[in-house]
Amino acid sequence: MRIEDEIKQPIFRSELQKAHINLIFTAGWLQLRQATAFKCFGLTLPQFNILRILRGQHPLPATVALLIERMLDKTSNASRIVDRLEEKKLVTRTVCPANRRAVDIRITPAGLTLLEQIDAAGVDQVSGLSQLEEEELRQLNHLLDKIRSAD
Amino acid sequence: MRIEDEIKQPIFRSELQKAHINLIFTAGWLQLRQATAFKCFGLTLPQFNILRILRGQHPLPATVALLIERMLDKTSNASRIVDRLEEKKLVTRTVCPANRRAVDIRITPAGLTLLEQIDAAGVDQVSGLSQLEEEELRQLNHLLDKIRSAD
DNA sequence: CGACATTAAATGTAGGTACATATATTTGCA
DNA sequence: TGCAAATATATGTACCTACATTTAATGTCG
């Protein structure tokens, strides 16, 4: 559906304004689709993302600081997301022996099994970006990088 | 900064995976910048967006249903965002006389003044999309629309 | 007319984001 | 050594999202 129809706004002030709204809207659309796909596995999107980082580290542990570094959302509260994963027995938390300020977080066998099930279900096919050709994906990456170059 | 460095992940499995992450990350980056710009006016981003919709309707009222229809985030809770704006005296809520189930929501003079101040401060220059040429904006809009065509 | 579905908004709850502050541990240096 | 600064995480608060449920008003149709 065209962005004009999605938010019932027939005219945009400019191509810039339209692109801005389109970008936010499309990202939200993608995240909602993903979140819906994970829900039947009892995971939220941030929980899934952290679990995947932990699998990447496995069998080594990760610290909260490492999770934050790798997360898309730097300001989110990794500590509390780990709380939920711990309640579900998908990760363990132990004080790091080498540095007792830090906490070693590890994915459990149950966590690994769950991720395998999610992989098998092909949830990442929900991407929507598979609509784009390789060349278009490169174009998109270039444009997005350029937007953030305003920093 | 390149997306690889932003999230400390040196290699992406594919251009598709990279574009996906880039899209989510860039949208979040934009929203955080915007939110920061509004903060000194005491508004959150959703509050600002609703206030702007109300200005667009002014002097006609809007209903909650109309707000939801025009919001980027359809599942957000317009009713509670209006609560906060009402507390700040930026909008009024009155039962719609023609249909007593509905509620007429109107922006107040104080609300209009605040939006004028925000306009004057040039907050929308924070966009980041101003980095792109007109042709690039059209390209971006096309690519984003194509992603959502997966529906 | 009256029961029942529909519609409009509000409310409840779980979880997430943003940001400030607190607590515990380690490090650095006078 | 001892004490301040830095580091690692946890906690508090306000607000938001997602989604289910509730409450009230209106429509509809036998």
UniProtKB/TrEMBL annotation, chains A, B:
One Pfam assignment: MarR_2
UniProt domain HTH marR-type: residue ranges: 1-149
PROSITE patterns: HTH_MARR_2
Name listed for the protein in its UniProt record: MarR family transcriptional regulator
Organism from which the protein derives: Hymenobacter glaciei
